[in-house]
Amino acid sequence: MSRTDAILKRLSALHPKLIDLSLDRILPLLADLGSPHEHLPPVIHVAGTNAKGSTIAYLRAFLEAAGKKVHAYNSPHLVHFNERIRLAGRLVGTRRLNAALEQVERVNAQRPMTFFEITTATAFLLFAETKADYLLLETGMGGTYDTTNVVAQPLGVIITPIDLDHQGFLGNTIGEIAVNKAGIFKRGSKAVIGLQKDEGRAVLDRAARKLGIGPIWQGEDFHGMEQDGRLVYQDEAGLLDLPPPGLLGAHQFDNAALAIAAARHFELPVDADAFARGLRAVRWPARMTPLQTGPLRDLLGPGAELWLDGIHNAHGAAAVATTLRDLDRVRPAPLVLIMGLMNTRAPAAVLAPFAGMAQQVFTLTIPGEPNAHKAAYIADEARKAGFDARPMRSVTAALKAAADVPNARVLICGSLYLAGAVLAQNKTPPD
């Protein structure tokens, strides 16, 4: 066990619950640390159900193309915890991370604190100590009581599309979940809102109006669309003709447009050239990522494709299914899904968008995750939904079985935890 893992294991034991949404514990800890959350560069706070990470990835790429130093906070990580904290453009170094974690551990003095709370406090400490031009801050879950929601006056707020997810914590309807996400709105901060279903939009609109915020809305105040293979973006300031996003999928045109709108509405120093260079340079691992090398890829035949995506809910699955249909129009190929899911997800809902597409489904129990669905259960649910499904003992076994399908397009999906395990086993971790 590495030193980082040993520290994180100790911190995980401070609170009996993995998730306990509240600001009552984090605020006293931050005060004892010297209130680092009050000494940050301008903050752009991002909440939503899907596309938070992609939106931040685009914004970071735009700002860095414009020569700016950018902090970023994302979760969860895929392979190494360091992936969560990017300081002025670089992932935090292990020695510095360990020192900060141990400092926060000492100051906390064994008080009950969830893993996300104490690690977020560590991130704020590192962000405050390191000079940067902007901080891109992703919520962990929800908004109102999310641990990141301690920044009193962000430069701007982004709400990505809201859908059903984490209902046990955030609410059972899109409207209830939207109430929670809207909790990151702050009076005096600008807001940009992605494509929303009617119920979510109504909630967000009411919440913004109560605070005197006039947000701009995707699909109304700004638009982004694919045209002849390029991204055409338009808002009241004019039209931009840009290269396509570096991330794959029709939904990425929407995500990129949301980030462009935020950059323009928040008056970030990004011009058309920086937008173009950022769109080409953007990277966000395990989002329709092709695995073209590595020991796992070697298990498939030369005519096969291997893809990885961390989809974990029905909304994300629908976007990936659309991307696969687009790929199939270019090169038809039998689709094989290799899927593992956490037990907070309904297998039938995640699989539904792939009906009529997947030739076979191989299911996995996510390694090292006690709260994962068993492979046999996912396979049973898949068969009930009409899929040809079999449980497998490992990713290796599933890929060997997929290799029996000539020239297959193989997608490993269902959880970012599974995606991280795959990247580690394939020896292709994120940089």
Describe the structure.
The protein is α/β, with parallel strands linked by helices and 431 residues long. It has 2 domains: 3-281, Mur-like, catalytic domain (UDP-N-acetylmuramoyl-L-alanine:D-glutamate ligase, 3-Layer(aba) Sandwich); 289-425, Alpha-Beta Complex (Protein-Tyrosine Phosphatase, Chain A), CATH 3.90.190. The chain has helices at 3-12, 26-32, 52-65, 94-108, 115-129, 167-170, 174-181, 198-210, 251-265, 272-281, 314-330, 347-351, 375-384, 395-402, 416-425, and strands at residues 43-47, 70-73, 85-87, 90-91, 134-138, 156-159, 190-193, 216-217, 222-227, 230-235, 238-242, 289-290, 305-308, 335-340, 358-364, 389-391, 409-413. The strands form 3 sheets. Strands 4-3-2-5-1-6-7-8 form an 8-stranded mixed β-sheet, sandwiched between helices. The chain is globular. 51% of the residues are buried. Its cofactor is Mg(2+).
Reconstruct the topology from this structure.
Layout lengths: L2 H10 L13 H7 L10 E5 L4 H14 L4 E4 L11 E3 L2 E2 L2 H15 L6 H15 L4 E5 L17 E4 L7 H4 L3 H8 L8 E4 L4 H13 L5 E2 L4 E6 L2 E6 L2 E5 L8 H15 L6 H10 L7 E2 L14 E4 L5 H17 L4 E6 L6 H5 L6 E7 L10 H10 L4 E3 L3 H8 L6 E5 L2 H10 L6
Parallel strand pairs: 1-5, 1-6, 2-5, 6-7, 7-8, 13-17, 14-15, 14-17, 15-16
Antiparallel strand pairs: 2-3, 3-4, 9-10, 10-11, 12-13
Helix pairs in contact: 1-4, 3-9, 3-10, 4-5, 7-8
